[in-house]
């Protein structure tokens, strides 16, 4: 005898509400910063109730991290057959995401928020940075197989250094060359 399907409590999640929550989070975040962003303000802007938000997220840190992730592109693992072409693809992808006005605001907010909120920093590390570090490690491991880099090259250290260079160049724009050229040149010093 077949058992009847069990109904789950509450209403099913509405994709439109979910998108409205993420959009409202990004808008408010860019307007007032992380510390002054509240679940109340997000709920009002998104046109949903606070319980609707709390059914999806444990708190502000998790919601903001998800909103930022929704703004970002999927993890891309280029495989051109050449390390420098792969790195160029990664640099170009980063430029498209972070050099726009919203991208600049988002990066500034991430740095500020991660500096003042260990919970936000942990969630952002887990949801955003770790998957990208792991994807980058694949690029480096392929380069090792092709003998393009030393076998002992540490992919995590290269990723962290590359990220630092990108952030620095975003804040202090290179004056004599495009951002992408500056970043590539700096990474070339690291990987020879």
Give the arrangement of secondary structure elements.
Elements: H1 15-32, H2 39-46, H3 50-56, H4 60-71, H5 83-98, H6 101-116, H7 118-145, H8 155-171, H9 179-190
CATH overall fold name of the largest domain? Tetracycline Repressor, domain 2
The number of domains: 2
The secondary-structure class comes to: mainly alpha
Order of helices and strands: HHHHHHHHH
Helix fraction bin: 55-70%
N- and C-termini, Cα separation? 68 Å
Q: What characteristic shape results from the CA principal axes?
A: elongated
Q: Given this structure, which CATH class of the largest domain is correct? A: Mainly Alpha
What is the radius of gyration computed over CA atoms, rounded to a whole number of angstroms? 20 Å
Structure description:
The chain has 192 residues and is an all-alpha fold. The chain folds into 2 domains: 15-70, Homeodomain-like (Arc Repressor Mutant, subunit A); 74-190, Tetracycline Repressor, domain 2, CATH 1.10.357.10. The protein is built from 9 helices and no strands. Helix 6 crosses helix 7 (118-145). Residues 3-12 have low confidence and may be disordered.
């Amino acid at each position: 005898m077949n058992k009847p399907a069990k109904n789950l409590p509450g209403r099913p999640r509405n994709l439109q509400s979910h998108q409205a929550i993420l959009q409202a989070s990004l808008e408010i975040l860019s307007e007032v910063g992380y510390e002054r962003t509240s679940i109340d303000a997000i709920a009002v802007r998104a046109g949903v109730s606070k319980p609707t938000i709390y059914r999806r997220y444990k708190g502000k840190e998790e919601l903001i991290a998800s909103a930022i992730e929704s703004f970002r592109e999927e993890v891309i693992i280029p495989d051109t057959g050449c390390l420098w072409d792969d790195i160029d693809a990664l640099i170009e992808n980063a430029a498209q995401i972070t050099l726009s006005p919203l991208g600049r605001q988002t990066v500034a907010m991430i740095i500020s928020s991660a500096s003042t909120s260990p919970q936000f920093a942990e969630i952002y590390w887990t949801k955003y940075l770790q998957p990208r570090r792991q994807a980058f490690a694949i690029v480096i491991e392929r380069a090792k197989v092709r003998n393009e880099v030393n076998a002992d090259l540490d992919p995590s250290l290269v990723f962290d250094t590359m990220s630092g260079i990108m952030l620095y160049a975003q804040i202090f724009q290179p004056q004599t060359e495009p951002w992408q050229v500056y970043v590539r040149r700096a990474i070339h010093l690291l990987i020879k």
